[in-house]
Amino acid sequence: MSEQTSTSLSGRRFEESHLLDAARAVFHAEGYAAAQIADIARRAGTTKPTLYARLGNKEDIYLHVVRREAEIFRGWIADAYAHGSSLPLSELAQVGMDPLFRFAAERTEGFDLLFRGEKAGDQPGNLRREVLNNVTEQLTTLIKRRQKAFGADLGAPSDALAAACVGVALQVCEHTIDQGGDLGAARHIAARFVENAFHNLDVNPRPR
To answer: Which part of the chain is the HTH tetR-type domain (predicted)?
Structure first.
């Protein structure tokens, strides 16, 4: 099914993704409080009535934007983790870190709004927690599958290990962004940190 479209000032029709891209850029540049529907309409090449009709008021539009970014990120996580259980620990650590750092690098505006953006009411805050919980749950499943495949007992609850990995990844990613660092190098550091932590937790380590 094709995406719904809106008519621009020039009579052209845009997919909803175009409207959301414009809104994401304005919210990222101006912040939620300062962003105006008129700014979003201007950037999208459409009208305020069209935006209201298609996406709702400013808070509705913000939530549409953040939800879309959350769904994209969840998809990247699912794709990355799909075959991770068969990988050695060093490769598994890289796979575990890759989606977050890739998202920060390729969808910087979306990353900032989803994980670091201003809140419009409590719903975006809840959404952020849902996303992180979902990532932790998927990583927990991946760790359990990895333990089953390789037979190594990491000596700690899988969900606690997953939460630690997600926390490390997010902290390293945000620090790197704030310092203007290299996200690729930061991903490698985070992956090595997690890999070494897993090695130290192995009760019965086996060759990798």
So the answer is: 13-73
Say if 21 falls within a structural domain. Answer: yes
Residues 104-114 have pLDDT tens digits of 999 999 999 98
60-89 residue pLDDT tens: 999 999 999 999 999 999 888 887 767 777
Nearest to 54 by CA among 10, 124, 5: 5
Asked if residue 208 is part of any domain, the answer here is no
- Of residues 93 and 117, more confidence is placed in 93
The tally of domains found in the chain comes to: 2
Give the Cβ contact number of residue 203 at 10 Å.
9
Residue range(s) defining the domain that contains residue 46: 5-56
Is residue 177, in this structure, part of any structural domain at all? yes
Long-range CB pairs of 22-27, under 8 A, 24+ apart, other chains included:
23/55, 23/61, 23/62, 23/64, 23/65, 24/65, 24/69, 24/109, 24/110, 24/113, 25/109, 27/62, 27/65, 27/113, 27/117
